[in-house]
Write a structure and sequence with these properties.
The structure is a single chain. The chain is an alpha/beta fold and 209 residues long. It has a single domain, classed as Ribonuclease H-like superfamily/Ribonuclease H (Nucleotidyltransferase, domain 5), CATH 3.30.420. Helix content is 48%, strand content 16%. It contains 6 helices and 5 strands; from the N terminus they run βββαβαβαααα. The chain has a 5-stranded mixed sheet. The N and C termini lie far apart (34 Å).
């Protein structure tokens, strides 16, 4: 399974591609998109064209995007919504479903803490994929892709009725953070379970609203 993670931004949009391998995941490619146009419509057009080229080149099986965070700045939220809309339109035109995750769920999945700082997220990505990953937009996008990979594997195991769930994405040697699902009951809280719980709560709130 190949997942394209996207961390949308009004000025810089990060992207990261990960692929499932035996016992873990590997990084395929990552980077950022910084449209040169200043006008809003042209910037969105450049970003849409960029995503089209990414999908043509890498042909991911799924696209995962970080959900917009509703802060106090309404104008920033509006611009971010426009970016998300442009990206969603490209995927929708191709018939690709896009799954979005709240920032807290992504942080839980890779760092074990829904309030983790960017540096902690980078450390989690580094231990799960290897290599050097500094805090930034492309690393955040890789974290989003890893989050979806974790959820997809977990859901497949649940659908198969597996009585025991082993490690979902194996960490690199020396990493002692919470990166696996318990193999036998009683089952403690884990990053994946916590992320699923946060996502379900967010979905319920959205429906109620």
């Amino acid at each position: 399974m190949r997942v394209l993670g996207i961390d949308p931004g009004s000025h810089v949009t990060g992207w990261g591609l990960v692929e499932a391998v035996a016992g873990g995941a590997r990084q395929v490619a990552s980077g950022v998109s910084m449209p040169r146009a200043r006008a809003g419509a042209r910037r969105l057009g450049e970003l849409a064209d960029f995503l089209d080229r990414l999908l043509d080149e890498w042909r991911p099986d799924a696209v995962a995007m970080e959900r917009a965070f509703m802060g106090r700045n309404a104008m920033s939220a509006l611009k971010l919504g426009e970016v998300r809309g442009a990206l969603l339109a490209v995927a929708g035109r191709r018939g690709i479903d896009v799954v979005d995750y709240p920032p807290a769920s992504v942080k839980v999945a890779v760092a074990g803490n829904g309030r983790a700082e960017k540096a902690a997220v980078a450390i989690g990505v580094r231990h799960m994929l290897g290599g050097r990953h500094e805090a930034g937009d492309s690393t955040d996008a890789l974290a989003v892709a890893l989050c979806h990979l974790l959820h997809a594997r977990h859901e497949r195991r649940l659908a198969a009725g597996s009585p025991g769930l082993g490690a979902v994405v194996a960490p690199r040697r020396g990493w002692r953070g919470p990166r696996s699902i318990a193999a036998a009951p009683p089952v403690p809280e884990t990053p994946v379970r916590a992320a699923l719980r946060l996502r379900a709560r967010s979905v319920r709130r959205t429906r109620l609203a």
